[in-house]
Amino acid sequence: MNYEAFAAQLDHIQERATASLAGIDASDALAAWEREFLGGKGELTMLMRSLGGIEAGQRPDAGRRANEVKKGMTAAYSAKEAAIKFGGLTTRLAAEAVDVTLPGRKPNIGYAHPISLMIEELSEIFALMGFQTVFGPEVETTHYNFDLLNIPADHPARDVWDTMIVDTPSDAIVMRTHTSPMQARVMENTSPPVRVVVPGRTYRYEAQDASHEWMFHQLEGLAVDKTIRMSDLKGVLQELARQLFGPTRRIRFRCDFFPFVEPGVDFAVDCAICYGKGCRVCKGSGWLEMGGAGMVHPNVLRGVGIDPEVYTGFAFGLGVERMLMMRHGINDVRAFAANDLRFLAEFASFSAHAGRGSSV
Ligand code: DAH
Q1: Cβ proximity of 304 and 155 under 8 Å
Q2: Ligand 1, CB within 6 Å, residue ranges
């Protein structure tokens, strides 16, 4: 082949390649183009192989021109490759654009559980009367749950508390059936004067119904000092009733039996819904039962090394769920542990009021 024919073919390839490349806008078409012109069996490569047939004097010129064309086409290929990539990005950016002017989605804000709110409120009420809030173990020994509370082993009084026993060889470990064992624990660790309240979970082997749960909450109270009298108990519980249910509340004590107090009482508050006339919430009686109480039994004081001739004390136990049910007219205790957000959300405003509420 002579130089002129070689140059003409070179121009021809370059023209067709340039025209063909202009119409390409996808990477598979670009790969095909590359194979057709620049690849090992591409037109340009084949033509360059024929360089050897050109007359020696003209061969360097022909080689230089061919290399220039190859360089140009390779550059055009790279430019197109980048354009395709970048073009894809532009399309994607357009498709995935975020409209920042749209209003945002509100995050779900959590709030404290009504039981937690009630315990907090009770702690505050009692703090103002000088009671410290302390917590105790939910898994207890029978020593604290019964023995030290003047409820001896094999005594029928134990039957009052349907107990969940932890499976150990001695059967001496139980889920605490009440918060009262903390009375003994606190007295063992502090010397009088003692004023504490103990909120927390308690457990009973119980068939569930609208007023019974196998897990519920109590708040225990204990005051021990040299001059504690029944009237102190009455004053404290009267103040509690007023703080919880309104300033005109009256309370009622009736004789009751609990092995760890003597005398023992149950105490009630006059119904804040009907003012004692009788309604659905107080079941027509005019009174709402709040819990048990009494003067700490001498045997209990003796059991923890406190001399009942020198010191006296009062104790009480409240059902936390009961307080909420009475105040809000809730008729099923199971609502508290059912985790139904429609129920729990009813208390959101109380939570906000108490300054509580966190993101969940
Ligand atoms: N521990 C009792 C119960 O769960 C409630 C109780 C009654 C607590 C009288 C007391 C009390 O502190 O004095 O049934």
Answers
A1: no
A2: 178, 180, 220, 258, 261, 292-294, 315-317
Please identify, by atom number, the ligand 1 atom nearest to the C-alpha of residue 222: 12
Here the tokens at position 142 are 């029978």
Q: Which of 41, 111, 44, 110 is nearest to 77 (CA)?
A: 44
Query: 246: Cβ–Cβ under 8 A, 6 or more apart, which residues?
Result: 272
Q: Which of 41-55, 158-172, 207-221 has the lowest mean pLDDT?
A: 41-55
Spatial CA neighbour of 126 closest among 197, 74, 63:
197
3-state secondary structure of 188: helix
Could you tell me what percentage of the chain is helix, strand and coil, using 3-state DSSP and rounding each to the nearest 5? 45, 20, 35
Omega before residue 169 within 30° of 0, cis: no
Give the residue, by CA position, lying nearest to ligand 1 atom 3. 178
pLDDT higher than threshold 70 for residue 241: yes
Give catalytic residues, as residue numbers: 161, 178, 204, 218, 261, 315
Is the pLDDT reported for residue 357 higher than 50? no
pLDDT tens sequence across 251-278 = 999 999 999 999 999 999 988 778 888 8
- Evaluate the omega torsion of the peptide bond into residue 298 and state whether it is cis, within 30 degrees of 0: no
- Structure tokens that stand for 53 in this block: 């047939």
Record the pTM: 0.71
What does the block give as tokens for 61? 């010129």
